[in-house]
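Could you join me in thinking about how sequence relates to backbone shape in a protein? Label the sequence line and the structure token line clearly, so we can match residues to local backbone shapes. Once you have written the record down, we can walk along the chain together.
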Amino acid sequence: MLPSAQQCLGAFAAQLRRHTALTDADADMIHSLPARITIAEAHQDYRATTSIWIVAQGTVGRFAESLDGGRQITGLYCAGDVFGLSAIMIPDVTQAFEVIERSWLCVLPVSALVQVLACSRVQTRSEPKGNGGSKAYG
């Protein structure tokens, strides 16, 4: 049985908790986001601009594209993985994604997640390094 959009959002909130100082109130806001499940056929392309996707079932690849049209796979996303977050972190760069096999994706608008993050003030946890610097997770 496939997970619902709410189950995908719950798993996403759990992932954020492992890497950020997400509160219960923040997790509740994530659960209330307007997400939906969609079926994506193999070889369907996506660009990280206005949506973030959580893989409910299937496999999605991230690609680097050369000027001559060549493509090289640079990452794979499987059930539970999130792709398209670059639309928030580096909005001037567009990443290309292709569905490798028929997949069920939970689609989440970037604008909705940005509002939650702005309200919650979620900050990345840091871990001290030996040289006095810090390593951010997230």
About this structure: Strands lie at 36-40, 45-47, 51-65, 71-77, 82-83, 96-109, 126-128, 134-136. Residues 127 and 134 are 5 Å apart (CA to CA).
